[in-house]
Design a protein that fits this description.
383 residues, alpha/beta, Nucleotidyltransferase, domain 5, 3 domains, 5-stranded mixed β-sheet, two-stranded antiparallel sheet, 7 strands, globular
Length: 383
């Protein structure tokens, strides 16, 4: 006799409903402490539950998943698809509806990677958070420099350059003489804009409070960079230890280096059986154009929603692949942007999708990347 369970997960409570093929229903409310989760697990085993379905509610589902995973077949589903039909007026009814959908095989589970890949994901998304934090702090640091009327950021490529950081370090030490500060500027910047212009941009009024604030921000930036490097080293160690072949194969694809390879493994794993086709992976990532057609007219070709972390990584890789000499992706980008005069950003998304297709084939077929060259023709055969 088949018995399934539906869980409606909240921050402080879990609404449980066990449904049997005979129509028997058991409903109960549990807390979220580990001891209560283990009690719930024992009750489910006692009642012969084999399948459990829960909604992906923020991060509240993760500890429940970890406790139940060794004992049951689990499904994580999107609440949007679960709650399409009306008529549920309480949370217990929600749990019952989840159980009914599971019993009738109406729901399909979302992709939940194995534990080791989940650890990689935590490191990967921590790096994304640190990148955003570094950008915010650099912006604050430049705001202080502008308030002191030191306009160096107008003449450097970005505020993360070595010259800019060296000038900030000197200011934090109390050095405000432009003749001393200009010694920290790279000669190419001075030659490009002129010595007098750079000296004028380094002349300002810096108060004691501003020196202290800049010193604190520089310390926070240094700490964030150290944490970022630590996370990256952990990711590389896991990939080289547990996924060495896949790690090396991904780096044979143009535009994909060490950081991108670790991020790709963290977001999609190495088991491509979870994605039936390469197009399925592209759709899951959000790089598939919308199919919004009416009466033969395309209303929208915008890309769909998907894994934003994977999309960020693969689009950055597309930038690099588009600038790699003598590879398919750079030739495609050149033809679309220069010959066919298409929008550069749309072409970049197209290159990113093609890169992701290549990633799927490299992992699925367990082979290195082989570049496509249209000039190479198959040898002619006699007869």
């Amino acid at each position: 006799m088949r018995a399934v369970c539906g869980l409606d997960v909240h921050k402080d409570t879990i609404y449980l409903c066990i449904l049997c093929e005979t129509g028997e229903i058991f409903e109960h409310v549990y807390g979220v402490l580990t001891c209560e989760l283990k009690t719930m697990c024992r009750e489910m085993k006692r009642r012969g539950v084999t399948e459990v379905t829960m909604e992906s509610t923020a991060t509240y589902w993760i500890p429940i998943w970890r406790v139940l995973e060794p004992h049951f077949r689990l499904k994580l589903v999107n609440p949007y698809f679960i709650k399409q039909l009306p008529g549920r007026k309480s949370d217990v009814k929600d749990a019952q509806w989840i159980a009914e959908c599971t019993l009738k095989d109406l729901v399909r589970g979302s992709f939940v990677p194995p534990e080791r890949i989940q650890q990689l994901r935590q490191y990967d998304r921590r790096i994304f958070d640190l990148d955003a934090e570094i950008v915010r702090k650099l912006s604050k640091l430049d705001g202080i420099m502008q308030r002191c009327n030191i306009r160096l950021s107008n003449y450097v490529s970005n505020t993360d350059t070595k010259s800019y950081k060296s000038v900030v370090d000197k200011l934090c030490e109390g050095v405000t003489d432009p003749e001393e500060l200009i010694k920290e500027i790279h000669g190419r910047i001075i030659n490009k804009h002129g010595r007098e212009t750079i000296l004028a941009s380094l002349t300002g009024v810096v108060s004691e409070a501003e020196k202290d604030t800049m010193r604190q921000l520089r310390a926070e930036l240094t700490l964030a960079e150290e944490h970022k490097q630590e996370c990256h080293k952990k990711m590389v160690h896991i990939c080289e230890t547990h996924y060495p072949k896949e790690f090396k194969r991904l780096m044979t694809i143009p535009g994909i280096k060490e950081r991108a390879a670790t991020s790709l493994i963290a977001e999609i794993g190495v088991d491509m059986t979870k994605f039936q086709t390469a197009a399925h992976l592209a759709s899951w990532s959000g790089l598939k154009p919308r199919n919004d057609v009416s009466n033969g007219k395309y209303k929208s070709r915008r890309i769909t929603h998907g894994n934003v972390y994977l999309r960020k990584t693969i689009i950055e890789c597309a930038w690099g692949a588009s600038r790699t000499k003598d590879c398919f992706f750079s030739r495609f980008s050149y033809h679309q942007t220069v010959v066919r005069k298409k929008n550069k950003m749309k072409v970049l998304v197209a290159v990113a999708r093609k890169l992701l297709i290549a990633v799927w084939h490299v992992l699925h077929d367990e082979t290195d990347y082989v570049d496509f060259n249209p000039d190479c023709k198959a040898p002619a055969t006699n007869g």
